[in-house]
Design goal:
513 residues; 9-stranded antiparallel sheet; alpha+beta; 9 helices; 7-stranded mixed sheet
């Protein structure tokens, strides 16, 4: 196939012939008519190219997808540029206006232009669709809509934003590529500072999924409508990030997702961030005053966890998951696992190795599974994930808080899941823990045996649960029963170290008083 490039978008010239033949040129009158047809064709090429590209990547070998991922991790400046004059880009309830200035587009990856930089005179307006969301934005904007201006902005997108801009811009190829710096520095900011590493949580930075992995997921999935991501400093509002994820989970704050596609964050870098607005697509409010729909495309029906807790209180595990996917042809799937838990392998139900993405623990380490072919909606899939803890002293999964007292952090992410708190899973756990401690977990104790060095217990959830937890230590326990209910409570024999310190300080204060 003869595939060429038009402004970073691949197209097939043979399609041109078919389109021209489908037209009756007898109805075309004058140059103006020809130009309108050409314009329509070029816009059509963009849509056709995107579809063809997604179809190609959906069946490409996993290693090819990993190669594309490497390119996405280092998006560079391209040669395409355009002068902006009264350009308007409307993204759902938000409107970007570019009164004057210049667009510089990134070099294409896998035939797609996925990023742009703007410099000039621009404005941003957000008008939330519901009264509740209008009152929320009024807390920061002083009215039911936010209006502000900006002089620079960086955009990332896998939706039709490039096609929409192409309709209004005269994009031309420059003699040399634009600077890589805006794309390199922004991607570095997201990967190193907008993640779940403990240092970033202390700085008050927002959590963001791996941008490059999400791009790859959209490129390989023809049913994804993509995302739009705008990062800019507004004159009055400060640093803002506006994000739409049209029909997939959000990039921003994935742990807080409730199926809302639109989000606006305000950032004070290194200090805090604020959630200014978040809502569903505007069209949904025409159907219901309170739109609601499942926030995830994936459902994990069963999870069998084989857990090992070492004498040093570090965990390692193998988890076998059975899951289904809703009406979509996803190939690259995000899931949830604490970043200090490093994946050694992922296998399918037949024991075949599967490709996956997981960056360094201090980076955007959220893992992504690459299936060998697009998932078939409604079909059951089985995978086995093996992982082990590689943490620092202040990023441990289990903290010792006193003699025989241990606290388990990451209660939603010490095991792999699809990150949706509304998802219910039937859990089974086999745990090997230090023999000298009592081990308790969610669900019902099925079996227990003691070896020379370990306590081996098996647990099963009686009902599907969102989260499956455990704890261990030197416990004092007490049990009470009613007609159809038995409750056992566990407590440490000693006071935690933090409370000991507080008690000592209070005693010193009383003595000093």
């Amino acid at each position: 196939m003869d595939v060429r490039s038009f402004h970073g978008v691949r197209y097939d010239p043979s399609v041109t012939v078919l389109l021209w033949r489908s037209l009756d040129c007898r109805f075309i009158r004058g140059i103006g008519g020809y130009m309108k047809i050409i314009g329509a064709l070029l816009i059509g090429f963009i849509g056709l190219a995107v579809f063809a590209n997604a179809a190609e990547l959906s069946t490409a070998p996993s290693q090819d997808l990993l190669s594309i991922y490497k390119e996405l991790r280092a998006i560079k400046g391209g040669t395409d540029a355009a002068v902006a004059e009264n350009v308007v880009l409307k993204r759902d309830a938000a409107t970007f206006r570019f009164a004057s200035g210049q667009f510089m587009f990134a070099a294409s990856v896998a035939g797609r232009v996925l990023a742009a930089q703007f410099r000039g005179e621009g404005s941003f307006e957000l008008e939330p669709p519901s009264p509740v969301d209008q009152r929320q934005i009024a807390r920061f904007a002083g009215g039911s809509k936010l209006k502000d201006t900006f002089s620079e902005a960086i955009f990332y997108f896998t939706d039709d934003s490039f096609a929409e801009l192409s309709k209004q811009l005269k994009i031309q190829s420059a003699q040399s590529s634009s600077s890589d710096e805006p794309f390199v520095s922004s991607q570095r900011q997201y990967s190193t500072n907008f993640n779940d590493w403990i240092d970033n949580r202390r700085k008050g930075n927002p959590v963001m999924r791996n941008l490059s992995a999400r791009m790859l997921a959209d490129l390989a999935d023809g049913s994804s409508k993509g995302f739009f991501f705008a990062d800019f400093k507004a004159k009055n509002s400060g640093n803002l990030i506006f994000h739409i994820s049209w029909n997939r989970d959000s990039l921003l704050l994935p742990g807080y997702g409730k199926g809302e596609e639109v989000m606006l964050l305000h950032l004070n870098p290194g200090n805090y961030y604020e959630w200014w607005s978040g809502f569903h697509l505007s069209a949904e409010y025409a159907q219901s005053a309170h739109p609601d729909h499942p926030p995830s495309l994936f459902h994990c029906s069963t999870a069998q966890i084989d857990l090992q807790i070492s004498k040093e209180n570090r965990i390692s595990a193998t988890t076998e998951m059975e899951f289904t996917i809703a009406a979509t042809a996803s190939r690259v799937l995000p899931f949830n696992l604490e970043g200090v838990l490093r994946i050694s392998s992922i296998e399918d139900g037949a024991g075949n190795k599967l490709s996956f993405i997981q960056e360094d623990r201090k980076l955007d380490s959220d893992p992504w599974l690459i299936l060998p072919e697009p998932a078939r909606p409604g079909e059951n899939y089985k995978i086995k994930i093996s992982y082990a803890e590689d943490s620092t002293q202040d990023s441990r999964i289990v903290y010792q808080q006193g003699s025989g007292l241990y606290y388990v952090t990451s209660r939603q992410s010490w095991f792999p899941s699809f990150g949706n708190f509304d998802d219910r899973t039937q859990f089974q756990l086999r745990a090997r823990s230090p023999q000298k401690f009592k081990f308790v977990a969610s669900g019902t104790l099925v079996a227990s045996e003691t070896t020379k060095d370990e306590l081996v217990t098996s647990w099963k959830s009686e009902l599907p649960l969102s989260v499956f937890g455990f704890n261990y230590g030197t416990f004092v326990e007490s049990t009470q029963s009613a007609a159809n209910l038995t409750v056992t409570a566990y407590s440490g024999k000693e006071v935690p170290d933090e409370l000991k310190q507080l008690s000592a300080e209070m005693s010193r204060a009383e003595m000093a008083g």
